[in-house]
Amino acid sequence: MKKLERRRVDIAVIGGTGFYDPRLMEDSKEMKVYTPYGRPSDFITIGHFKGKKIAFIQRHGEGHQIPPHGINYRANIWSLKQLEATRIIAPAAVGSLREELRPGDIVIPDQFIDRTSGRASSFYDGGQICHISIANPFCQELSEIAFNTGKELNLPVHKGGTCVVIQGPRFSTKAESQLYRSWGADIINMTMVPECVLAREAEICYLPIATISDYDVWKDGLVSVDEIVKTLKENVEKTRKLLEVMIPKIPRERSCDCKDALRNAIL
Q1: Looking at the domain assignment, is residue 263 inside a domain?
Q2: Active-site residue, 226 included
Q3: What is the total count of domains within the chain?
Q4: Which of 77, 78, 149, 231 reaches 20 to 30 Å from 88, CA-CA?
Q5: Which domain holds residue 119?
Q6: CATH value at residue 145
Q7: pLDDT tens across 155-186, in order?
C-alpha cells in the first residue's frame, strides 16, 4: 500500500443516509486504510473537486449495511486523520422537533444533547487522559460558510439549533419525542455523536449538514421509513448543490479554534 502521506486530502465528506455520491470528484480512486480500531465503514474514495483534494467515506457502508449503533466511528475518524484531513463535512438525515423546521429543509446545528450509550467515544482510553472541550461542538467557521452559501442559493437553510442524538436503531416513542421538544431541542438524529466528538479530539473541523426527512413521532404519529427515503431522495440534490458551491469557498488556512482543541486538554 502506498504511504498515506502521499494521499493527503484537504476536506473529507462523510456521506449520510441518502447521500452516497462520490461523483462530485474527478480522478477518484478507492483506497483501504488500516486502523488500530478495526475496519472503517468502507473504502475511502479520494479525488479532486475544484482545486480541493477530497476524501469520501460512506458512514453506513456500501448499500447502507451498518446501523447507527454499529458504526466504527473511531476507525472512520482515525482514517481521515491519517489522510491529514483538516475538515469534515457530514451530511446526515434528521427528524424535526419544530413545526417551522419542515421536511426538505436544511439545518446547520450548533449544539447537541447526547442520548447514546455504549459507543466508543474517545481515542483516549487510558495511559493519557483527555478532557476535550465540546462547549461549541461544531466548527463555527464552516457553519458560517455553509449557511451563507445556502442563503445565496435560496435553499431552505436554518442557522443554529440543538440536535438530540439517540442510540437507535429504533425511532422514539411519542413520550420521548415530546420530552426532547420540552428540552428545547430542534432536530433528532442517530449518528452525530460520537462522530463530532472524535473529530474534535483529532483536531479536525466538523460541520454537520442536517437535512430534515420527517417530523418525528410527536407530530405525525408514526415515522415511516418509506416516507423518509422519499424525502431523502429529494434532499440529496440540495445537499449536493450546497457542497458544490461551498467547498471552493473553504480557505486552506483555518481561523477557528478546532485546530488547537488538544491544547490544555491532555493530563
Answers
A1: no
A2: no
A3: 1
A4: 231
A5: 4-123+132-251
A6: 3.40.50.1580
A7: 999 999 999 999 999 999 999 999 999 999 99
